[in-house]
Amino acid sequence: MSKNYRSELIFLFGNPVDDNPTGAMMEAAFAACNLNYRYITVKVTEEGFDAAMNGIKQMNIKGLNFTMPHKEKAVRYMDKLSPAAKIIGAINTCYYEDGKLVGDNTDGKGFIQALAEKGYSPNGKKIFILGSGGAAKAIATECALAGAQKITIANRTVEKAQNLSHVISTQTKCKAEAVCFTPELVIPEDTDILINATSIGLAPASDKRPDIDYDSIKKGMVVSDVVFCPADSLFLKAARERGAVCVNGLGMLVCQGVLAFELWTKIKAPQAVMAEILAREMN
Fold first, then answer.
1. Angle between helix 249-265 and helix 106-117 axes, rounded to 10 deg
2. 141 Cβ partners below 8 Å, 6+ apart?
3. Is the per-residue pLDDT at 223 higher than 60?
4. If both were cysteines, with which of 50, 198, 223, 258 could 244 make a disulfide (CB 3.0 to 4.6 Å apart)?
5. Alpha-carbon distance values, 212 to 49, 75, 196, 215 (Å)
6. What is the distance between the alpha carbons of residues 253 and 16, in angstroms, rounded to a whole number?
């Protein structure tokens, strides 16, 4: 019987990537499913990105992940984009379908899935997002496509929030508005879901939290943080003290990985294994 010594390859392109734990999570998932796949984390500079992308096209790989600073630049190498990726203008995952390279963004989808696992949906809800960067764009887009009633985006540079709210308002059926992220920002009383889509509170700056009026968080409000290390951020702790339902960033990180795994392999991901490994790596 012949043996197959060739592994199916998945690459992560980014810079910096030395502290990115995705490889550990994916390798554990491949092993759990007895798949001869390898996940290879590669430092690719902005200057070297074009050469790297041209190179992988000759390598018969299964797909890629992209992280900073390549998420927007990678779009132009795709043969096709998911509906969300078209709106966001950035991808973090690509895979082959019928010989074509398809770009997708699983960040926002991971948020929606993590929310669903807690029994909540953006459908018909009023959502307030802190920040207007890549995570905010992905989350706002997926919430809008999932039927959110209204999305408010707060950013210190209000023009960036206005740009994102314009995209959401014009390219989806959801209403969106921008506000300036001022100190001790008051969260509107009718907010259903509050999301910190900034990196404030991410280790090693885990002693920080977004500068909002925490007493404006109402009991029963769903509060989520994209910060995954620590999983229980100061932002979430303060929200929980006020009776909020909290969804941490670790769940979102696992869920976006689950979605990428299934796009590459076409089989169900071992989510429990992935969550366990990622939690271990974060500790």
1. 120
2. 84, 87, 88, 105, 108, 167, 168, 172
3. yes
4. 223
5. 38, 35, 11, 9
6. 18
Instruction: Fill in the DSSP letter of residue 185.
Output: B
Asked whether the beta carbons of 249 and 279 are under 8 A apart, the reply is no
Distance CA 81, CA 91 (A): 9
* Cα–Cα distance for residue pair 234/245, rounded to 1 Å: 14
Q: Which are the contacts of 72, defined by CB distance < 8 A and separation ≥ 6?
A: 89, 90
Q: Identify the residue whose tokens are 């939290």.
A: 209
Predicted confidence (pLDDT) per residue in 237-249, tens digit: 999 999 999 999 9
Is position 109 annotated as part of the catalytic site? no
Amino acid at 148: A
Please, what is the end-to-end C-alpha distance for the chain in angstroms? 44
Rg (CA), the chain: 19
Rounded distance between C-alpha atoms, residue 52 and residue 266, angstroms: 25
Amino acid at 159: E
Q: What is the pTM of this model?
A: 0.89
Nearest to 259 by CA among 9, 101, 91, 49: 91
Interatomic CA distance for residues 279 and 283, integer angstroms:
6
- pLDDT tens digits, 249-275: 999 999 999 999 999 999 999 999 999
Hunting for tokens 């959110």 — which residue is that? 148
Distance (Å, whole) CA 153 – CA 263:
30
Query: Residues 175, 128, 187, CA angle at the centre, nearest 5°?
Result: 125
Mean pLDDT value across the chain: 94
Which of 3, 43, 57, 71 is labelled catalytic? 71
Cis peptide before 69 (omega within 30 of 0): yes
